[in-house]
């Protein structure tokens, strides 16, 4: 038995999220179906660094699975890719120690959220950016983001449907980049709650419009109540960009 670690990318537009669900098309479902074909009908369980929601994309999702097949390491990527649809790409496959776990060994993740701020929408990017045709104060957004750095209880910035009780997370870095009509938010942290990045972005955009004041961010954190934060930004602008391990 050997354990393989894969870095994968996917366009989440046509998926009902990463995690397998009955009668729905999911990334995990496609991966396990491909592996089952490779293993002549034997079921193979895939473990990921975490779930992504419907419509959310990934540039650097990490998965692992165990196999008895004797395929050479350098041939695994092509073997898997040929059995997968065009909206999933296998970027690399490497052998890892049997103790490695794609989820439990994560030390940090980077998410990016892309906002298209030009007046005219781009129909060719509608599945990959959030069209937000308003003039925003980027300096105010950057100032507000500084209050979100460090260790906080992010209850105000996660969905009311969040199941985990411990909502304390640490954000190491937030960067707001401007690039040819795009506003790109970079978040690096030790973990993120359900809808957390999308609510952070939605709140910061409202800061950019002046609807939420920069100095209100600490109060929103302190209240630990979802109703005080901004709107949840839509899924199509969100990318799981990178997963970091020791």
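-> sequence recovered:
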């Amino acid at each position: 038995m050997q354990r393989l670690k894969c870095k994968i990318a996917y366009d989440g537009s046509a998926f009902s999220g990463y995690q397998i669900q009955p009668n729905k098309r999911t990334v995990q479902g496609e991966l396990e179906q491909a592996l089952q074909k490779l293993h002549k009908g034997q079921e193979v369980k895939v473990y990921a660094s975490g779930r992504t929601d419907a419509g959310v994309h990934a540039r650097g999702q990490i998965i692992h699975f165990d196999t008895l097949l004797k395929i050479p390491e350098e041939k695994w990527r092509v073997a898997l890719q040929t059995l997968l649809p065009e909206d999933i790409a296998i970027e690399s496959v490497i052998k890892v120690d049997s103790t490695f776990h794609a989820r439990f060994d994560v030390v940090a993740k980077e998410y990016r959220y892309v906002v298209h701020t030009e007046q005219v929408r781009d129909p060719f990017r509608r599945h990959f950016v959030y069209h937000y045709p308003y003039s925003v104060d980027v300096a105010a957004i950057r100032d507000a983001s500084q209050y979100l750095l460090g260790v906080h209880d992010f209850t105000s910035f996660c969905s009311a449907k969040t199941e985990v009780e411990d909502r304390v997370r640490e954000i190491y870095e937030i960067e707001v980049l401007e690039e040819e009509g795009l506003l790109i938010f970079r978040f690096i942290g030790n973990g993120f709650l359900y809808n957390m990045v999308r609510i952070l972005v939605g709140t910061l955009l409202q800061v950019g419009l002046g609807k939420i004041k920069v100095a209100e961010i600490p109060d929103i954190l302190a209240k630990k109540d979802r109703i005080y934060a901004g709107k949840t930004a839509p899924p199509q602008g969100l990318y799981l960009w990178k997963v970091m391990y020791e």
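The CA atoms of residues 104 and 205 lie 32 Å apart.
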